[in-house]
Amino acid sequence: MREVLRRLVAGEITEDEALAEIRGVQLDELAGRARLDLGRYLRRGVPEVVLASGKSPAEAARLVIAMARRQGQGLISRMSEAHRDELHRAATDAGFSITGHSTSARVTRPGFEPERIDGKAGILTAGTSDVPVAEEARQVIEACGVDVRLEADLGVAGLHRFVAPLAAMLEWGADVIIVAAGMDGVLPGLVAGLTDVPVIGLPVSTGYGRGGAGEAALDTMLQSCSTGLVVVNIDNGVGAGAAAVLIASRVAQRRRRGRNTARTATRIAAASSEMIQNGARSRKNAAASRSEKASARTKISAKTVMSSRGAPRRRRP
Question: Rounded to two decimals, what is the model's pTM?
Answer without folding.
Answer: 0.72
